[in-house]
Amino acid sequence: MSTPTTQRIGYALKRAQHALRQMMDASLRPLGLTTPQYAALAVLEEAPGMSGAELARRCFVTPQTMNEIVRGLQGRSLLVRGTEPRGARDIPLSLSPKGRALLKGAHQAVDEVEERMLESLTQSARNGLLAALRRCAEAFERPSSD
Questions:
Q1: What are the backbone angles phi and psi of residue 50, rounded to the nearest 5°?
Q2: CA-based nearest residue to 100, from 26, 24, 44, 35
Q3: Where in 2-136 does DSSP place strands (E)?
Q4: Which CATH class is domain 5-109?
Q5: pTM score over 0.85
Q6: Residue-wise over 45-62: b if at least 16 C-beta within 10 A, else e?
Q7: Model confidence pLDDT, tens digit, residues 23-74
Q8: Which of 28, 41, 74, 127 has the smallest set of CB atoms within 10 Å of its CB?
Q9: Residue 81 C-beta-side C-alpha neighbours within 13 Å
Q10: Residue with the larger pLDDT of the pair 90 and 101
Q11: Which of 33, 34, 58 is nearest to 45 (CA)?
Q12: pLDDT of residue 81
């Protein structure tokens, strides 16, 4: 007999991710942001000057989806495109002052969601969870041993 779904780590991880996404969407909605838009702004805050393709990889979406996200954020004057392309389609992106200001409130909203998710965990357990999740992701990033 196979392992019950509720006992599978992958299922528990997906359940937690789904609940986190719903809570983040709800907390960001009053700010006029979606979770993918927040992710794009947060990544650009850490690494300004990224291209849309680089941003898509860091936000786990397709380049086409990121292009739509960027157009929407740019239309709201939250992002600016650089004037010096590094290649034919490689135009650097960065936050506008309006984007930075909105992101401060968004970070606070997301911090509250994460705190709710982790409130029953000690700091040691939080650190262990973060380390374990990083190791899990890194396992898939290494070449397979087949």
A1: -70, 150
A2: 44
A3: 79-81, 93-95
A4: mainly alpha
A5: yes
A6: eeeeebbbebbbebbebe
A7: 999 999 999 999 999 999 999 999 999 988 999 999 999 999 999 999 999 9
A8: 127
A9: 17
A10: 101
A11: 58
A12: 85
